[in-house]
TrEMBL record:
Pathway: Purine metabolism; AMP biosynthesis via de novo pathway; AMP from IMP: step 1/2. It catalyses: IMP + L-aspartate + GTP = N(6)-(1,2-dicarboxyethyl)-AMP + GDP + phosphate + 2 H(+). The lineage of its organism: Bacteria, Bacillati, Bacillota, Clostridia, Eubacteriales. Binds 1 Mg(2+) ion per subunit. Mg(2+) binds at D12, G39. GTP binds at residues 11-17, 39-41, 305, 331-333, 412-414. GO terms for molecular function: adenylosuccinate synthase activity; GTP binding; magnesium ion binding. It comes from Bittarella massiliensis (ex Durand et al. 2017). InterPro entries: Adenylosuccinate_synth_dom1, Adenylosuccinate_synth_dom2, Adenylosuccinate_synth_dom3, Adenylosuccinate_synthetase, P-loop_NTPase. This is Adenylosuccinate synthetase.
Length: 426
């Protein structure tokens, strides 16, 4: 079975928690795109872990974790992440972590360029995490990127680095008026943080293909959500990679394989980190209260997340482009104190209602149309079976399921590993 766990909305839906839950029994968990510009938070018996680059299966003994060729890897950040896990007693070895030799390295100059560009844009900035993701993906498609496998041949790597730094310096000096780059500091960074990672680097595509041939279970882990996809998201306020399930086999290194099942993750309300249109955004005291109740701060950056009621228009679109077969609804417990719970069922654009998710300037003009449902006004963190939930909570989940047109098979009622309800699938 080849399954993907993906985000339905703007990201931060709780995918890491679901990967941690569903990785039990899997042979491998694979990250197939993105870099350290988002975080997956996992809470288990060992503590609370925030993972930016490592697959969430790293917290499961016996699971092999793969960083695929579709990823961009900040060597310094990855090595720091490995050290922190080891200090917490989590084993990270070449036996349980494999890094694709085709994955792209994100050097310090791409982080620097990301910052320079956001500052140049000023009030029109895209809300980047300033971790170099857009510049390094740009390098990749301009064929000016360095790849993990090149660390094994320092002489060839040094020659390529000289040419790339000269090219990148033209942008730094000519566009931003910044000082020119020099290769030596980058070379020292590559050697210092790259050489310790060499034992993990291999042909991950061959490894995964062998697992698939044997019929082993492989779980593909996405970063961010459908609305941040470079092609199908709220462009230009997107990430620079494909966050969709359809890209999973390509970004993992097994492009000839097909997924058997797609599990979409979405919250019981809406959250968004970064800039861009967010029609259901709650401002003022109501927004602050929901943010505090849900602990809504970015796992990668600590930025306060924008929050709002559940957006069925955006979620239905996310379900469609992700090709989701089933859904996990997270943070249902956060709504337990509300007497009444609004749900966005449509948008009003230029005086006309629509249930379709628009793009471009039409999305900027979208106004949410709400339907209010009764709350349940009691904690649900102890519930482990569907019948233990208050009737109002069950009705809320049923209502969302009908609106998005996809079965909700998992409900999260708290942050701990065991705080979930399996609802069953059709």
């Amino acid at each position: 079975m080849l399954r993907a766990i993906v985000g339905i909305n703007w990201g931060d839906e709780g995918k890491g928690r679901m990967v941690d839950l569903l990785s039990s029994g899997c042979k491998a968990v694979v990250r197939y795109q993105g870099g350290n510009n988002a975080g997956h938070t996992v809470v288990n018996e060992r503590g609370r872990f925030v993972l930016n680059l490592l697959p969430s299966g790293i917290l499961r003994e016996g699971v092999v974790n793969v960083m695929g060729p579709g990823m961009v890897i900040d060597l310094e950040h990855l090595w720091g992440e490995i050290i922190r896990l080891r200090e917490a007693g989590v084993a990270v070895t070449p036996e349980n972590l494999k890094i694709s030799d085709r994955a792209v390295i994100c050097p310090p100059y791409d982080r620097q360029q990301d910052i320079l560009e956001e500052e140049r844009l000023g009030a029109a900035a895209y809300g980047s995490t300033r971790r170099g993701i857009a510049p390094v993906y740009g390098d990749k498609y301009l064929k000016k990127a360095l790849r993990m496998g090149e660390l094994a041949d320092p002489d060839a790597l040094s020659r390529r680095l000289q040419d790339i730094v000269r090219w990148k310096s033209l942008t730094f000096t000519g566009v931003y008026g910044a000082p020119p780059l020099t290769p030596q500091p980058v070379w020292e960074w590559l050697m210092h943080f790259g050489q310790p990672l060499l034992p993990f680097v291999c042909d991950t595509g061959r490894y995964l293909d062998e697992l698939a041939r044997r019929g082993d279970d492989i779980l593909f882990e996405a970063q961010l959500g459908a609305l941040r996809d470079i092609d199908y998201g709220i462009y230009p306020y997107t990430s620079s990679s494909s966050t969709l399930a359809a890209y999973a086999p390509i970004g993992a290194g097994v492009p000839g394989r097909q997924l058997d099942r797609v599990i979409g993750v979405l919250k019981a309300y809406s959250t968004c980190v970064g800039e861009g249109p967010f029609p259901v955004e709650l401002l003022g005291e109501a927004g602050d209260a929901l943010r505090q109740s849900g602990g809504e701060y970015g796992a990668a950056t600590g930025r306060p997340r924008r929050v709002g009621p559940f957006d069925a228009v955006a979620s239905r679109y996310g379900v469609r482009v992700q090709g989701a077969h089933e859904l996990a609804l997270t943070k249902l417990d956060v709504l337990s104190d509300l007497a009444e719970i609004p749900v966005c069922t449509a948008y009003r654009i230029d005086g006309r209602e629509t249930a379709d998710f628009p793009m471009g300037s039409a999305l900027d003009r979208a106004e949410p149309v709400y339907t209010a449902l009764p709350g349940w006004n009691r904690p649900i963190g102890h519930c482990r079976r569907l019948e233990e939930l208050p009737p109002q909570a069950i009705a809320y989940v049923d209502f969302i399921e009908r609106l998005v047109g996809c079965p909700i098979t998992y409900l999260s009622v708290g942050p701990e590993r065991e705080q979930y309800i399996e609802r069953g699938r059709s």
